[in-house]
Write a structure and sequence with these properties.
200 residues; mainly alpha; 5 helices; two-stranded antiparallel sheet
Length: 200
């Protein structure tokens, strides 16, 4: 029991003292790094859940606003873009719902208050006024969403969410290119890609 601790020899021949590990060394209570990792992990999960909930709400809004564009749009390109919104965001929403079930995220009842207000505002417009307001809203939304989805695809530790966010980012990028072109053709965007009338 009281035998001296023998030095361990590494392949290079230099003796290394044998380290005796304390039974509590790897426990989170005595390891601040482990506690920080646990906290970071739980924060990451909460952020992932919030993203999924917001993405589902945003997708619902895109579908409803797309249906409104098909119904009220005065130009063919606005109507076609609306149809694409309905089709693509319905598909993305179905994918995100599967992720939500895996992560135990409660499905939202409908779009956010802000998107409901936008829907009501657009509902009260018609003709060119509707087109301009819808196009402007879509440019803003898709720029913001493209950044959010790309960031989540890189940051999330959840493989299913990473994949859904990556696919979402690709689709949103396509939508952004389309709506930028539509905005330019309706004289709502300058040559630098900036909206010329963002007051809608």
């Amino acid at each position: 029991m009281c035998a001296p601790v023998l030095a361990q020899v590494n392949p290079a021949g230099a003796p290394q003292p044998q380290q005796q590990s304390s039974p509590t060394a790897n426990q989170g209570m005595n390891n601040p790094n482990a506690m920080q990792q646990q906290q970071a992990s739980s924060t990451s999960v909460m952020q992932d859940k919030a993203f999924v909930h917001d993405a589902l709400q945003g997708g619902m809004a895109e579908v409803q606003l797309g249906q409104l564009a098909v119904e009220k749009g005065s130009s063919e390109d606005v109507k076609q873009f609306g149809q694409k919104m309905v089709a693509d965001h319905t598909r993305l929403g179905d994918q995100m719902k599967q992720v939500a079930q895996q992560m135990d995220v409660k499905l939202p009842n409908g779009p956010s208050k802000k998107d409901k207000e936008l829907y009501s505002k657009l509902q009260g417009l018609s003709g060119q006024q509707f087109d301009n307001a819808y196009i402007t809203a879509m440019v803003k939304d898709h720029k913001k969403d493209a950044e959010t989805f790309k960031a989540k695809a890189q940051q999330s530790q959840n493989p299913a969410l990473q994949q859904a966010a990556q696919q979402g980012a690709q689709v949103i990028d396509q939508h952004l290119q389309m709506i930028d072109q539509i905005a330019a053709s309706h004289n709502l965007m300058n040559s630098k890609g900036k909206l010329t009338n963002s007051g809608y």
